[in-house]
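Case study 2.
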Amino acid sequence: VNAGSDVILVKGDHRLTLGALFNFGRADVAPIDPATSYTTVARQFFFVSRYDYFLTDMDAVWAGLSYRWDPLAGFKAQLLASAGYLRAFIKTDKHYFAGRIGYSYTFENYEVPPSTLTSNSNIHGLLAALDYENRLNEHVEFLASIVTIYNLNKVEVQNATPFQDIRIYLTAALLSHLTDKLAFEARFLMLYDRIPPGADLVKVDIPVSYTHLTL
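Prediction:
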């Protein structure tokens, strides 16, 4: 089950993007074993926001704030605040391709503390991102974004030295407009954490890969 909302507001040199997503899933992880039953394999909430102010037609400054609740990935809360510079390489009616670079601060509160020292981490990072939008025709759009964050400080909980705890967030979506107010969307989201906050947690998480109708 997936539910979410997206808002984009554009006025002059200002652009505000807001998004929220809730995902819940259960699966029979051992279908050939009659003794097993369905297990919760996905339970997450994401909120993202970003504000862009274009200084010129191709240059902008930006600031973003996001929140993630993902207990199965080890997070009671993950709060990310970031800001930096944006350069649009292509900006036409059909294509938009831009790169972003900036500073990020991440606060993490863990579901099961990886050590007895602390259940929180404060991570200062270098953020680099690419954003792409392609209006294939008047009815179909393709959207993609990849964000990479390199830690600048030592992260004690994960025993990670600077530039060792790399995070990558990849999103891709294909949106087909059926009417002015109804669309069909296929979306893929991948989260990569080089050093997860727990020995039993995996590096790659694909919490969202689905199709749905959008009003």
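The chain has a mean pLDDT of 88.
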